[in-house]
């Protein structure tokens, strides 16, 4: 007998299948199922898939590739470190070879022979390196000896005094500087000559490794004001600062300053707060509280500084100590008397301003500044004293005046052909050192309203013979005229010795990064 299933029993089955297909969880599972694969049965182990089921887990192949890239980067860094060590060893060997060559070249000159041997023997004594460069220090000194001869007209001599003919020590400074933790730089310098006293005593580069764009200097150091004042006295073209710079621009004082440079050194700035300044030859007006700032720019900088244009602005607000200030000016000769002076002025505040511009084009350079002092004098009001200068120079031997981006100033000259026995700077391709001719005109006015301090105009001519990086001979002629008082003629000569002290070999990667921060001896 034939069996059959009633038609009515198919309806519940169809309804059940329809309900199951419309269930959201089941539908999602069905969609996610890989086409062509059998449905996973209950209790069956999940099958492996090329795509990770958990989005947080990494693809094994991608992870292996990432590890391979990291290993390659580490290997590359190791190779760079080895290369840096080789370069450091090569640099040390080059210095030793230079010493040997100097000694051999000076064999026929007893004095040069002794000097070369002495410098070679003291190189390792003057520098110290601990813990593979984590703490480094060097010791050194600098010397300037000045000869002064001159005469003044009868009226000017009666007013200011006689110009003494003499040879005196202008600067004799001992210093110690270095760095630690490969981040911080320190310097200490004491002068024992005409302006005896503490000069530099500071720590800087603080904060640069965290803030990057900003570093700080704390201690006793130069206020950021004026191009000529901010440059080292070793590197200026003339023996003394121009009339308005020596009178108005502040020198070293105790304080804290932030500084930085941007756009690869094309823009520089420095702002600081200072106190406890005293009236010295560097500071004609003492101040109990000072805010000083300077901003500079390089609209043009090509050929590693052989063609450049520099501009800058300096501002300072000062509170005179005891409300007493005096502006006095020498005729650009340290051992000559003061020719003009305001005597004592009682002022609550003083504002200083300075504009600066300079340019270098191959062996030629020009530089100019205008400075003004505006003291608020009691019972008189605000007075304005001012002055300016313009200078130009030419290196007959082809050098260019070096510029330091790190502090927006001019640096030390390295002769193309340092002087050796028999050298002549007037002959081409002769080991005669570098020869520079320079001229400057400067003026200052210390008269305003009831205060008649005087007006002075100077013409200076100079010749500089850079025998080596460390040795320089200079001669200046100065024609100075004081309005309504007379004139003076002064001749200056100077021998300057400022040796370079080489650091022990250090990892060039760090050295190259921080070379501009440490710089040369000021």
Layout of strands and helices, then pairs:
Elements: H1 10-22, H2 24-32, H3 60-105, H4 110-126, E1 127-130, E2 135-152, H5 154-160, E3 166-180, E4 184-191, E5 197-206, H6 208-211, E6 215-222, H7 227-230, H8 243-248, E7 252-262, E8 267-275, E9 287-302, E10 307-320, E11 324-325, E12 328-329, E13 340-341, E14 345-361, E15 364-377, E16 381-382, E17 385-395, E18 403-404, E19 409-410, E20 434-448, E21 451-466, E22 471-482, E23 486-497, H9 508-518
Describe the protein's architecture and organization.
The chain has 522 residues and is of the alpha+beta class. Helix content is 22%, strand content 43%. The chain is built from nine helices and 23 strands. The chain has helices at 10-22, 24-32, 60-105, 110-126, 154-160, 208-211, 227-230, 243-248, 508-518; strands at residues 127-130, 135-152, 166-180, 184-191, 197-206, 215-222, 252-262, 267-275, 287-302, 307-320, 324-325, 328-329, 340-341, 345-361, 364-377, 381-382, 385-395, 403-404, 409-410, 434-448, 451-466, 471-482, 486-497. The strands form three sheets. A 16-stranded antiparallel barrel has the order 2-3-4-5-6-7-8-9-10-14-15-17-20-21-22-23. Strands 12-13 form a two-stranded antiparallel ribbon. α3 (60-105) runs antiparallel to α4. The chain starts with 9 loop residues before the first helix and ends with a helix.
């Amino acid at each position: 007998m034939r069996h059959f299933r009633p038609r009515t029993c198919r309806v519940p089955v169809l309804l059940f299948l329809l309900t199951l297909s419309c269930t959201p969880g089941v539908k999602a599972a069905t969609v996610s199922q890989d086409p062509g694969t059998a449905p996973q049965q209950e209790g069956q182990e999940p099958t492996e898939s090329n795509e990770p089921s958990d989005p947080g887990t990494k693809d094994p192949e991608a992870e292996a590739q990432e590890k391979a890239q990291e290993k390659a980067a580490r290997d590359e860094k190791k190779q760079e470190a080895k290369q840096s060590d080789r370069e450091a060893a090569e640099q040390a060997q080059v210095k030793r070879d230079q010493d040997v060559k100097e000694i051999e070249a000076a064999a026929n000159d007893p004095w040069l022979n002794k000097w070369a041997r002495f410098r070679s023997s003291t190189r390792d004594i003057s520098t110290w390196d601990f813990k593979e460069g984590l703490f480094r220090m060097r010791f050194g000194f600098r010397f300037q000896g000045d000869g002064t001869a001159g005469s003044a007209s009868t009226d000017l001599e009666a007013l200011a005094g006689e110009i003494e003919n003499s040879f005196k020590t202008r600067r004799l400074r001992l210093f110690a500087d270095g760095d630690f933790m490969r981040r911080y730089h320190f310097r200490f310098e004491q002068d024992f000559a005409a302006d005896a006293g503490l000069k530099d005593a500071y720590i800087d580069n603080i904060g640069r490794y965290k803030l990057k764009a900003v570093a700080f200097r704390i201690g006793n150091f130069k206020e950021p004001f004026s191009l000529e004042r901010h440059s080292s006295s070793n590197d200026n073209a003339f023996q003394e600062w121009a009339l308005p710079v020596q009178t108005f621009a502040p020198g070293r004082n105790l304080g804290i300053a932030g500084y930085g440079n941007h756009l690869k050194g094309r823009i520089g700035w420095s702002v600081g707060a200072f106190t406890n300044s005293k009236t010295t030859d560097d500071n004609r007006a003492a101040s109990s509280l000072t805010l000083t700032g300077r901003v500079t720019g390089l609209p043009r900088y090509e050929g590693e500084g052989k063609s450049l244009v520099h501009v800058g602005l300096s501002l300072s607000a000062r509170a005179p100590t005891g409300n007493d200030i005096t502006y006095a000016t020498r005729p650009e000769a340290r051992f000559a008397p003061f020719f003009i002076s305001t005597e004592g002025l009682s002022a609550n505040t003083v504002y200083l301003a300075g504009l600066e511009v300079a340019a270098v084009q191959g062996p030629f350079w020009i530089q100019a500044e205008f400075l003004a002092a505006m003291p608020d004098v009691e019972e008189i009001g605000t007075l304005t004293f001012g002055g300016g200068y313009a200078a130009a120079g030419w290196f007959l031997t082809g050098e260019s005046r070096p510029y330091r981006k790190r502090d927006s100033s001019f640096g030390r000259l390295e002769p193309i052909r340092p002087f050796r026995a028999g050298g002549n700077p007037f002959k081409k391709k002769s080991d005669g050192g570098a020869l520079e001719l320079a001229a400057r005109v400067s003026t200052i006015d210390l008269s305003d309203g009831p205060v008649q301090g005087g007006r002075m105009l100077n013409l200076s001519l100079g010749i500089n013979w850079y025998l080596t990086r460390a040795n320089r001979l200079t001669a200046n002629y100065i024609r100075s005229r004081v309005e309504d008082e007379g004139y003076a003629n002064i001749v200056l000569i100077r021998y300057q010795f400022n040796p370079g002290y080489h650091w022990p070999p250090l990892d060039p990667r760090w050295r190259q990064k921080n070379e501009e921060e440490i710089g040369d001896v000021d």
